[in-house]
Amino acid sequence: MTSSFAHKLGQGGFGAVYRGKLPDGREIAVKMLKDTQGDGEEFMNEVASISRTSHVNVVTLLGFCLQGSKRALIYEYMTNGSLERYTFGSNSAHDPNTLSWERLFDIVRGIARGLEYLHLGCNTRIIHFDIKPQNILLDRDFCPKISDFGLAKLCRQKDSKISICGARGTVGYIAPEVFSRQYGAVSSKSDVYGYGMVVLEMVGARKQTSVSTENSTRYFPEWIYNNLDEFCGTAGEITSNGATELVRKMTLIGLWCIQFTPTNRPAMSEVLDMLESNIEDLCLPPKAC
Fold first, then answer.
1. 249 appears as a binding residue in the annotation
2. Which of 131, 107, 134 is nearest to 9 (CA)?
3. Does the keyword Transcription apply (predicted)?
4. Which residues are catalytic?
5. Within a 10 A sphere around the Cβ of 197, how many other Cβ atoms?
6. How confident is the model at residue 90, as a pLDDT?
7. Nearest of 54, 59, 52, 57 to residue 76 by alpha carbon
8. How distant, in Å, are the alpha carbons of 14, 60, 138, 202, 229 from that of 108?
9. Mean of pLDDT over the chain
10. Residue 195 in contact with residue 188, Cβ under 8 Å?
11. DSSP for 189-230, written as a single string
């Protein structure tokens, strides 16, 4: 199936992913979780979460294998890898990994649709807790698919707040309330924060401000907030002069999504409305930091 694990696609916190092929010729991605003597919580989380989903913007689980301490998950293969490969700041328009602003906007919109489905469209609501570029996969048409549900939490639709033990996620994308409850309750709005950070990274926010902030992710949203017109103009010029409106829309939405207080963040359904709205209808949010 994997030709003795000859083609490694990537390595994550829970294990490695390999390229393989089913007997019928379909290409697959096989996620081999690290050997564990425990109860395999991350494995059961992923199987339980993703087996309940069916959406164009959520990766499809084709099967799984459990043999002793060995655990494997079999997914559809994503030709264009993860979004991490295509996030950029000041890359040249001639870089093969640079996508047009129109395509980036479509990816932003697709991720939002996938998250809205997880939060509202499933019988059992799913909070992902690890939204980041590495966990957004792109198929041959660059349609984004949310992946890696090892940290996900299942909860009933009527539960607006959820209980978790300790922080979970990736530094830089974890919502403040996941670290400290003084910021508010943990909820689906925690995924909204990670989404906002991904959107800002997609429009090149981190690289654009790395010199001013001494490579710290702590201050870059404040820099964007204070230099919005300058940034949107500069970023838009990377690929085309007509991209400024798209860049501004994505940046404003990203800033709304990373508000420190969860109740100040939009729900993913509201994010979709914002993405479809006119730029004149979007205002600058309160400072996020």
1. no
2. 134
3. no
4. 130
5. 25
6. 46
7. 59
8. 26, 19, 12, 9, 21
9. 82
10. no
11. HHHHHHHHHHHHHHTTHHHHTTTTTTT-TTSHHHHHHHTHHH
More confident residue, 119 or 154: 119
Give the CATH number, domain containing residue 19: 3.30.200.20
Helices 101-116 + 268-276 axis angle, to 10: 150
Q: What is the distance between the alpha carbons of residues 84 and 132, in angstroms, rounded to a whole number?
A: 8
Same domain, 103 and 22: no
Which burial class, exposed, middle or buried, applies to 77 when counting CB atoms under 10 A from its CB (0-12, 13-18, 19+)? Answer: buried
Mean pLDDT score, 182-210: 84
* Residue whose pair of structure tokens reads 């403040």 in the numeric block: 176
Question: Looking at the structure, do residues 62 and 113 belong to the same domain, yes or no?
Answer: no
Q: How many CB atoms lie within 10 A of CB 173?
A: 25
pTM, two decimal places: 0.86
Q: What is the pLDDT of residue 214?
A: 46
CATH of residue 176: 1.10.510.10
> Checking DSSP bridges between strand 136-138 and strand 144-146, what pairing results, if any?
antiparallel
Same domain, 46 and 69: yes
d(C-alpha 253, C-alpha 11), whole Å: 31
The mean pLDDT value for 124-151 works out to 93
**Whole-angstrom distance, CA of residue 204 vs CA of residue 103:** 14
How big is the chain by its Cα radius of gyration, in Å? Answer: 19
- Classify strands 124-127 and 153-156 as parallel, antiparallel or unpaired: antiparallel
Task: Read off the pLDDT band of 205 (50, 70, 90).
Answer: low
132 to each of 145, 146, 173, how far by Cα in Å? 12, 9, 7
Grouping H, G, I as helix, E, B as strand and the rest as coil, residue 64 is strand
**Cα–Cα distance for residue pair 152/238, rounded to 1 Å:** 36
| Residue 289 falls inside a structural domain | no
Would residue 232 count as lying in a domain?
A: yes
Range of the domain at 176: 83-281
